[in-house]
Design brief:
heterodimer, A: alpha/beta, Rossmann fold, 5-stranded parallel sheet, 5 helices, 21% strand, B: alpha+beta, Beta-Lactamase, 6 domains, 5-stranded antiparallel sheet, 26 helices, 25 strands, rod-shaped
Chain lengths: 121, 867
């Protein structure tokens, strides 16, 4: 059982991930944007963070930079459905900034579960 | 023999001296041996400039020549003292034979040099008496020391003649035998004039060097004590062609542009005081012939007094006009490029005109640019000539002058009207040059109106400009051609942004559908979970539907609804809906005037307008919080209202003003705020369709939108919709007189999350004879009915509530107690789901905000009691 933080501004996607990961036996906390996400992370430690990229207030790229700083062991998964640019562009940036895995929306439940399992060992 | 040997030696020296003295001419022929080479006392400048090396070569050559003719010389020398003296006397230079300081013999040349009478008795005279040294020599007479080498320059002695005048001689002294005794033989050559020249040359070394450096430069020499200005011929050609050459400094300075004089003086005084190598100054000169030129003056102090004060200034002036023009033209070109590309209208005209005038550096009262069809596109500086006549370019202002038509027609970029030709060609009143670029004739650039007309060199200047301008004009034309496309391109780009936003939203929707449907499969055995999963899927599909609707709404040009409407309930409904959905730090206030009248706009477009505006206002305050105010009021446009153009004066309009207390709209965004897809939001926060939709809907019904965003924050968006005159008010339910106790004791369950509304309903329905029980949400209502299905005769429910909505409640009620009538209280937008359109969930629908009688009437009908 690991502690996972889901940062996602879309209500349904956030609920989906929460529900999915809870079924996998993880303790899941959620945040609706990068700012809330980073604050939540600083308040309590997590083993894994799943973050969307395009979000209000603070986007996922910034959040990844904040979270990765000084925490090489933290596991990060970036997810994106794109925006002004193709999802790959955002995800590539996320990867360069330290995301361990990236998933393009829409992804299957199996895909995200596999990524989480792989990262958490 | 000794004597003979001495004579031979003397002869050699004679020859040698002559050879040295006459330079290369000594090699010219056998005369050398006889010493008959003519020696020019004043050989002019340059003689002493022959270097030592040259001298050595000459000496060696002379010696060689002497030896070559030795066989011829020998018999002469052997002919005895008479011949010897004869030789000495005939020498073309002075010879003095002396021994121990006393004169033994002086030849005729020497007597003449010393200014002595031919018959004056000289032998026995002291050398010092013969020719006293002008400068006290350290020891002995200058004739005494033997010349040790002929390789260097021979010494020059300054002697005084008998009359006291100064004589400068070059001397060569050797030993010889004279009348059986040892004597010295001194050869003397007068170099007085040469030395003067030499000194003059040395003095003027700077002047010469500068003069040699640039033969075309004007060279000047200013004696600061006398003010005398010397110069070469080129000086006048540079600074004052065609006029008197200035003879002194003031006359010279008068030619210099007044704006440049101070700079020149500063350069000179800096040089004088700081002892720099030289000074330089570029300045404009107005020449006597009326032309302007750029002159580079380069000078230095050539002599200073003992105290260091400058005594002489020497220098050059160089005509740098063509370089300056080239530089200026480069600068002009870039300015022209800038202007042609960036300026429009009158500013373009005047700037291009000025630049052309400057480039041409010739006054012309008129500059015109014509397009290839001969239509005048740009005319500048057009004004009548000094004599009052009108330049040809102005005679037919709309079309190209006939004389220039050929420039457009001809295959060559012709010029100079009908004559063309060289510099001697007649002056033309008009000058036209074809403007072409990229193989296209773009038009014609023409000048006219200069007194005296134009010549070939003017054509060349204009042709150069046209060459520069051609591509610029072409670029400009292309720019204008793409202006319209650019606007389209911006929209396309914006569309891309919108597409990005849609993709983002849509991928989230797909994500939810994919994820929850996958979970639903897993949850197949668990109905509760399965239902929850499928609800989410359904919710996501609804979102997808809404997204599609939003896109379609913008892309479709739907005919707006044409019916008329009382806007008040719509506004109030929306305000309530809004108040329920905004975050806690935003408050919503709604003020609707009592008499709003009716507007010719459908409920759906009106709601859309209000929603979009409210959405923007809300977003503006998302970070800061604040108050969102919606005002609806009738307005009669008066003249003082700056928000309207004059044609609106006196019109009756409905003003819908949505005000926020957010940060306001930056100035830079205001002009674009109604552009389709313009958005300041990040992708995912909106698609930038809000205001353009408002704009489109409002203008479609003949209304207008006004935006105010004062400095200091806050934004007011006002929508003005034409208001219809009120012709007979529609029947209002509140005028209906209901019988007392119309409810006849029927039991009502009232469901609403708003406490005040519950209280109001309890009072209203209670007064009307109902027994009322009120609960705050759908769950409580279901519980209550489930507990006692027969407890109520009618259920009255709000649509929007936390937990179950009115519709969901109605379904549950139908499950628990089929047939129990349900009355829905809702905003206008849900009317479509009213009894007629829905699956019969609701017996009655009451639109909000409701009046007491409307509620009571609906409850009565639903409960089956009739008044």
């Amino acid at each position: 059982m690991s502690r996972i933080l889901v940062i996602e501004d879309d209500d349904e996607v956030r609920e989906l991930l929460e529900s999915l990961l809870a079924r996998e036996g993880h303790v899941v906390a959620t945040a609706a944007n990068g700012k809330q996400g980073v604050a939540a992370f600083l308040a309590a430690p997590f083993d894994l963070v799943i973050t969307d990229i395009i979000m209000p207030e603070k986007d996922g790229i910034e959040a990844i930079m904040d979270l990765r700083r000084g925490r090489p062991e933290l596991k990060l998964i970036a997810i994106s459905g794109g925006g002004r640019a193709e999802p790959e562009n955002y995800l590539h940036s996320a990867q360069l900034l330290g995301a361990n895995r990236t998933l393009r929306k829409p992804f299957t439940n199996e895909a995200i579960i596999a990524a989480v399992r792989e990262l958490l060992g | 023999m000794r004597r003979n040997r001495a004579l031979v030696r003397a002869g050699v020296f004679v020859a040698l001296f002559g050879a040295v003295a006459s330079g290369s001419r000594a090699l010219a022929g056998p005369d050398v041996a006889g010493g008959a080479v003519p020696v020019h006392a004043n050989r002019g400048p340059g003689w002493l400039d022959i270097g030592e090396a040259v001298l050595a070569v000459v000496v060696i050559a002379a010696v060689a020549a002497v030896f070559r003719y030795r066989s011829r010389l020998r018999p002469i020398l052997l002919a005895g003292e008479t011949r010897y003296l004869g030789l000495v006397e005939s020498a073309p230079f002075g010879v003095v034979v002396h021994a121990e300081g006393r004169v033994l013999h002086v030849n005729l040349q020497a007597r003449q040099l010393f200014g002595l009478a031919p018959e004056a008795p000289l032998p026995g005279l002291d050398l010092d008496h013969l020719a006293p040294a002008a400068d006290a020599p350290p020891a002995g007479h200058p004739f005494e020391p033997l010349t040790t080498s002929t390789k260097g320059l021979m010494p020059v002695a300054r002697l005084r003649r008998a009359d006291g005048s100064l004589l400068e001689v070059q001397i060569l002294t050797i030993t010889t035998e004279f009348r059986e005794r040892e004597a010295r033989l001194t050869f003397i050559r007068d170099v007085t004039a040469e030395m003067a020249t030499q000194r003059a040359l040395e003095e003027n070394r700077e002047r010469l060097a500068v003069a040699l450096e640039a033969a075309r430069d004007g060279v000047w020499d200013l004696d600061l004590a006398t003010g005398r200005l010397g110069h070469n011929a080129a000086f006048g050609a540079v600074i004052a062609p065609g006029g008197p050459v200035p003879g002194d400094v003031p006359a010279w300075r008068d030619l210099i542009h007044p704006g440049d004089r101070e700079r020149l003086e500063a350069a000179i005084s800096r040089h004088e005081q700081e002892h720099t190598d030289s000074y330089e100054c570029e300045m404009r000169v107005r020449r006597p012939d009326g032309t302007d030129a750029w002159v580079l003056e380069h000078g230095r102090v050539a002599a200073r007094s003992g105290s260091g004060a400058p005594q002489r200034l020497v220098g050059t002036v160089r005509d740098v006009t063509s370089r300056k023009r080239a530089e200026r033209r480069l600068e002009m070109r870039s300015r022209l490029a800038e202007t042609v590309m960036a300026t429009r209208g009158e500013a373009l005209r005047s700037t291009v005109g000025e630049l052309l005038r400057e480039l041409l550096e010739a006054p012309c009262s008129c500059v015109g640019m014509y397009d290839r069809n001969g239509r005048l596109r740009l005319a500048c500086n057009c004004h009548p000539l000094a004599d009052g006549s009108v330049p040809d370019l102005l005679l037919a202002p709309e079309s190209v002058p006939a004389a220039l038509q050929q420039v457009l027609d001809a295959h060559a970029p012709l010029c100079l009207t009908e004559t063309g030709g060289g510099a001697d060609a007649p002056r033309a009143p008009l000058l036209g040059v074809r403007l072409a670029a990229g193989g296209r004739v773009l038009g014609l650039i023409a000048v006219g109106g200069r007194a005296g007309g134009y010549r070939q060199d003017d054509f060349e200047a204009l042709a150069g400009i046209a060459e520069d301008l051609g591509p610029l004009v072409l670029a400009r034309m292309e720019t204008e051609a793409v202006d319209a496309q650019l606007a389209q391109a911006q929209k396309t780009e914006a569309l891309g942004v919108m597409a990005g936003g849609i993709a983002h939203d849509f991928n989230n929707i797909l994500q939810a559908i994919m994820g929850f449907s996958s979970l639903a499969r897993q949850d197949a055995g668990d109905p509760v979970r399965l239902a929850a999963d499928l609800d989410r899927v359904q919710k996501a599909t609804t979102r997808g539907h809404e997204l599609v609707q939003r896109i379609l709404q913008f892309s479709r040009s739907e005919e707006p609804e044409t019916g008329t409407l009382d806007p008040a309930p719509v506004v109030q409904d929306l305000a309530m809906e809004l108040a329920a959905s905004v975050p806690a730090h935003i408050t919503v206030e709604c003020r609707v005037a009592a008499e709003c009248g009716r507007v010719r706009v459908g409920a759906q477009p009106l709601r859309q307008i209000l929603r979009n505006l409210a959405q923007n206002a809300r977003q503006a305050m998302e970070a800061t919080g604040g108050q969102l105010t919606i005002v609806a009021r009738p307005v009669t446009v008066d003249a003082a209202d700056p928000r309207f153009t004059p044609e609106w004066l006196g019109r009756e309009v409905l003003e819908l003003a949505i005000t926020d207390t957010g940060p306001g709209i930056p100035e830079a965004h205001r002009s674009r705020i109604f552009d389709p897809f313009f958005t300041t939001r990040e992708v995912g926060q909106g698609t930038g369709m809000g205001l353009p939709v408002v704009y489109g809907l409002v203008t479609a019904v003949g209304g207008r939108v006004h935006l105010e965003s004062p400095v200091g924050g806050g934004t007011v968006v006002s929508v003005f919709l034409p208001r219809l005159p009120v012709v007979g008010r529609p029947a209002e339910p509140d005028t209906t007189v209901l019988p007392q106790m119309a409810g006849a004791g029927r039991r009502v369950l009232f469901v609403d999350d708003e406490e005040e509304i519950r209280e109001l309903a309890v009072v209203l329905l209670g007064r009307a004879g109902f027994q009322v029980e009120a609960v705050a949400d759908g769950f409580a209502a279901v519980e209550r009915i489930t507990a006692d299905p027969q407890a109520f005769d009618v259920v009255v429910t709000d649509q929007y509530m936390p937990g179950l909505t009115g519709r969901e409640l109605a379904r549950k009620v139908a499950d628990v107690r089929p047939g129990l009538p349900v009355v829905l209280v809702t905003g206008m937008n849900e009317v479509a789901d009213a009894p007629g359109g829905g699956p019969g969930l609701f017996r009655e629908v009451v639109t909000k905000p409701f009046t007491g009688p409307a509620l009571v009437l609906a409850a009565c009908r639903a409960a089956g009691v009739t008044g």
